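Lab meeting notes turned into a lecture example. A postdoc, R.K., suggested we walk through two folding results consecutively so the class can see how the record format repeats. The first protein's sequence and structure tokens come next.
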Amino acid sequence: MPERERAARFRLIEQNGPGNRLLLESTAADGCRRIVISEYRGPALPASLNEPVIAPGRGEGEWSLTAAEGRFDFRARSVDRIDERPALLEPLHRPFALSVGDRIAVRMLLWLLRLPGGARLLRRWHAGRDA
């Protein structure tokens, strides 16, 4: 498996969203990393953060975010880290992909949908494909 590219710069996507949610996002060639902080109560964050590290604080619901831009102490109900890697699911989807012939047939049938009776042709093709 190829080594995962690390994305170090996180952008502030949303602050004071629904439920006072804060969303940080970082994109890389092989996926997306997100940090979602719910019920954020703390200082305003800069538009981008380099290599943020979030650690629990001493008290209940207390957290600290340390980045190259500084240290930010805040209170929150929860902090979730989401790591999206669509390349992991690609081999699972491959058996369900349409063949070249099926893709050409679908394009033609979608073009024929504009004609009278095109919907009937598409239904017949689909029924014959399931059988």
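The second example is placed directly after the first for contrast:
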Amino acid sequence: MRDKNGRFMKGYGPNKEERKKISGTLMGHKVSNETKRKISNSHIGIKQTEESKIKIGLASKGRKFSLETKKKLSLAKIRDKHPNWLGGKSFEPYTLDWNETLKRSIRERDHYICQMPRCNKQQLERTHHIHHIDYDKKNCNPDNLITLCHSCHTKTNFNRGYWIKYFKELNK
């Protein structure tokens, strides 16, 4: 619904026909590639609010991408440039020793409580994680394993050198 000046009234947007007419344009006006580039450049460095990020996420939820778009998205995420990329270390397989029995025994040893000081969350609905102190999946020695809640385990995936020292001193 539009007002007397032809603008959309608050709470009303364009219908399907108007959206088709507007798409690829700037409010119905055709724009040159140069103008599109200038608009794009003017948005560089502008931070989005959390609210707008949530709205964008909800708008694209369940969206289907073409194979071409999927390839472009895949190439855009160049792993080596991401600060958390460890050269594919997360794709290494666990040993045969890493099984539910071992994990259950570590949780029992730690009384199903997160071992991070000042956390001490008990295991309720969500099963606690078993963390390798030295980040080596092949080292399943019980002295190298510790029970952590989900949020504490997430914290330990950054600044790994710090956490290795931290847990080794904690176990002394």
